[in-house]
Amino acid sequence: MSEQPTPEALEALEARIMDLEVKASYTDDLLEQLNMTIYRQQQQIDALINEVRQLRQQVPEGGQGAPRNLRDELPPHY
């Protein structure tokens, strides 16, 4: 035989279910916000990658584009 839950127990269960539904709703909203943030960041990364590619194409190989030793640099004049 199964016992019927008391009205107090039913109220407690309903309150717990409501709390879980509210938390799930907030979690869904947060997930959507995070997805949009990741999407925007990926767009920025893609734009930066394209910009670096363009800059690399503009720099001549060897010559001035070659890595320099900072010790060979002249100090700035004030």
UniProtKB/TrEMBL annotation:
<dbReference type="Pfam" id="PF04102">
    <property type="entry name" value="SlyX"/>
</dbReference>
<feature type="compositionally biased region" description="Basic and acidic residues">
    <location>
        <begin position="69"/>
        <end position="78"/>
    </location>
</feature>
<dbReference type="InterPro" id="IPR007236">
    <property type="entry name" value="SlyX"/>
</dbReference>
<feature type="coiled-coil region">
    <location>
        <begin position="31"/>
        <end position="58"/>
    </location>
</feature>
<feature type="region of interest" description="Disordered">
    <location>
        <begin position="58"/>
        <end position="78"/>
    </location>
</feature>
<keyword id="KW-0175">Coiled coil</keyword>
<protein>
    <submittedName>
        <fullName>SlyX family protein</fullName>
    </submittedName>
</protein>
